[in-house]
Amino acid sequence: MEEEKNKKFSIMDDEKFMEFLTDNFGEIKNRLEDVESDVSELKTDVGILKTTMVTKSYLDKKIADLKGDFVINLKKEDEKVEKITDKLGNKKIFSSKDVEEIKSIEVFAKAV
User: Fold this and answer.
1) Total structural domains in the chain?
2) Which of 3, 44, 48, 99 is deepest in the core (most CB within 10 A)?
3) pTM score > 0.85 for this model?
4) Could you write out the DSSP letters of every residue in the chain?
5) CA 41/CA 22 separation, integer angstroms
6) By C-alpha distance, which of 54, 55, 74 is closest to 66?
7) Does the pLDDT at position 6 exceed 80?
8) CA atoms within 13 A of residue 39's CA, in its CB half-sphere
């Protein structure tokens, strides 16, 4: 009699356990499918970023180009200031002291 009671109890436990597994693992499966979908979207987004993102070497080259352009423009401006200073000094609008003072402010050192 005792053995039959334990057997019934065991069968009940098995059925409850299977019901629990079915209910809870179905929910877990749904959540995993959502995670898989999210990961797939992330992979797509990362792929897009990789194809549109600039590289460090590209940026370094562009920055160097801009720096070169900037230096060229500064040199031109420096030459203009020097010419204007000379002309105004020659016309005695600037004193020789003023001309020397302005020329002492060099953006780029002059080659001798």
Assistant:
1) 2
2) 99
3) no
4) -HHHHHHHHHHHHHHHHHHHHHHHHHHHHHHHHHHHHHHHHHHHHHHHHHHHSPPHHHHHHHHHHHHHHHHHHHHHHHHHHHHHHHHHHHTTSS-HHHHHHHHHS-SSPPP-
5) 29
6) 74
7) no
8) 6
Residue 15 confidence (pLDDT): 79
Per-residue DSSP letter, 91: T
Residue 10 has pLDDT above 70, yes or no: no
Q: What is the DSSP letter of 15?
A: H
Report yes or no: 102 and 94 within 8 Å, Cβ to Cβ. Answer: yes
20-32 pLDDT per residue, tens: 777 778 888 888 8
Q: Which residues contact 98 (CB under 8 A, 6 or more apart)?
A: 89
d(CA 69, CA 95) in angstroms, rounded, equals 34
Overall size of the chain counted in residues = 112
- In terms of domains, do 48 and 60 share one? no
Range of the domain at 6: 1-53
d(CA 30, CA 68): 58
